[in-house]
Amino acid sequence: MADFSLDGRTKVKTLKANFKKNFGATLRVYKAVSCKGAFADEDATLASIRGEGAKGGELVVKGNMQVGNFEKKVAEMYGIGVQVANADDSKLADNSITLTAAGKE
Q1: Residue-wise pLDDT tens digits, 67-88
Q2: Which of 22, 56, 64, 98 is the most exposed place for a label (fewest CB within 10 A)?
Q3: What's the total number of domains in the chain?
Q4: Which one, of 52, 7, 11, lies nearest residue 29 by Cα?
């Protein structure tokens, strides 16, 4: 499995596509860190939806990263909520498994 990186210029739809391609799991991207309410606009960049006080920057995503750690890191860096779901987007992945394992559920 290949790793990939993201930064503020990354569009939501590109992030979701890269995530699916690299790990096989589905990524849900929300406007708020709480993961409640509306999904983020597919054409928005991460910088444009970044929460107030979030520092941004580049994040390298590796397949051996745990789901919970990935979700927390994105929230810290970009001030947005993400949740990892299984390949067919029918249920959320357990926070203690790796991103690669999430795509195989």
Answers
A1: 999 999 999 999 999 999 999 9
A2: 64
A3: 1
A4: 11
3-class secondary structure per residue, 12-23 = HHHHHHHHHHHH
Residue 20 exposed, middle or buried by CB count within 10 Å (0-12, 13-18, 19+): middle
Threshold 0.90, pTM exceeds:
yes
pLDDT in tens, 14-69: 999 999 999 999 999 998 889 988 999 999 999 999 888 888 899 999 999 999 99
DSSP code of residue 89: S
**Coil vs helix vs strand at 5:** strand
Question: Which SS3 state, helix, strand or coil, does residue 61 take?
Answer: strand
* Nearest C-alpha neighbor of 50 from the set 28, 73, 31: 31
